[in-house]
Amino acid sequence: MIEVVCNAMETLIIFALYLYSHLGSNLHKNQYYAVDESRFFAFPKSNELIPLQNPDTLFLDAAVFHASNEVRKQHDLQPFQYDPGLYLASSGHATSMVYRMFFNHTNPYSPYERTARRRVELYTKRFRRVGENIGKYQTLVSGDYMIARWDGRLNQYEFLNESDRKLCKPFTYAEYARFVVAQWMASTPHRNNLMNPAYTYLGCAARLSPEPYLHKKAPYASLVQNFGGEQ
């Protein structure tokens, strides 16, 4: 009985995301993806610190997308085009990883979302080629080491640089997007996906760890890029 209920819930979630992909994607695309990376990073919000307890998730997702296109152009490659199906696949997997506390290309909890291709094909079957990058990176700017200290007044942890005992602050939206893309570019398999000219479409998602200051572990985000190629 429990398994039947869980499968029914998964089906409802998938259907809700399907509706969003068809009814809400145009607004989403027009808001953040109808501009190129230079215009996007000129938005004032790009230089705001990410409020880790209440981030603008859609803006952060778009920032990672546009930071990816920055490196494509730096290497004389055509920029990625946004695809709502790839976006929803990346969003679903990033959310699963951060809330179910796993880090893997394989989702062990849902047969519908077991592999990257299955996740993408829940929303679109247009792509002959599908690829995926994942990452898990802290969301505070720090030196080599951080110290966690309990703040009894605020009833939460604060994080300090070990070297100078200064408070570690969050990245800005632009800084974090460029930081995570730089980490992927420093890893050969991830770089190969980003630089592959056969991939022409992209969806990106970053999901921040919940209750970022209530745990001794530094706050982080789980990130996913899904790539698509029609040829």
TrEMBL record:
Q: Which Pfam families match?
A: CAP
Q: Which residues form a coiled coil?
A: none
Q: Where is the SCP domain?
A: 67-207
What name is this protein filed under? Cysteine-rich secretory protein family protein
Name the source organism.
Dyadobacter soli
List the taxonomic lineage.
Answer: Bacteria, Pseudomonadati, Bacteroidota, Cytophagia, Cytophagales
